[in-house]
User: What shape does this take?
Amino acid sequence: MYPKKLKEKKAIFVTGLPRAMTTLLCNILANNPKIGGGETSPLLEYVYGARYNFSNTPEVKSALSEMEMTDSFMAFCKGGMNSYAEQITTKEIYLDKSRGWIHYAPFLWKLRPDAKNYCMR
Assistant: This one.
């Protein structure tokens, strides 16, 4: 049911203002047989929810140092994002679209420095 070790998928993150043609860009990219996904996704909301809980849960604050908390959160997000992508597509490259990625760009660049990021306005 759950793979023991997932190979990290390559990723493309698309963000933009409403009516900025992000859907058109995703549809064009999805024509590539190596790329899957592309619909507006809840992935950012999952990451945001995890960040809130990691930041505000007394059990996490008392059990981990700030560095351990940051490292464990980043590992959690990286694994969770990859598992989510694996469930969405079996293709080599995962395409994720969310208006919110622009607000979390520095986090995303740190978490996935290899990922391609597109911002449409």
Summary: Residues 10-120 form a domain with the Rossmann fold fold (CATH 3.40.50.300). The first helix runs from residue 22 to 29. The chain has a mean pLDDT of 90. The chain has one domain: 10-120.
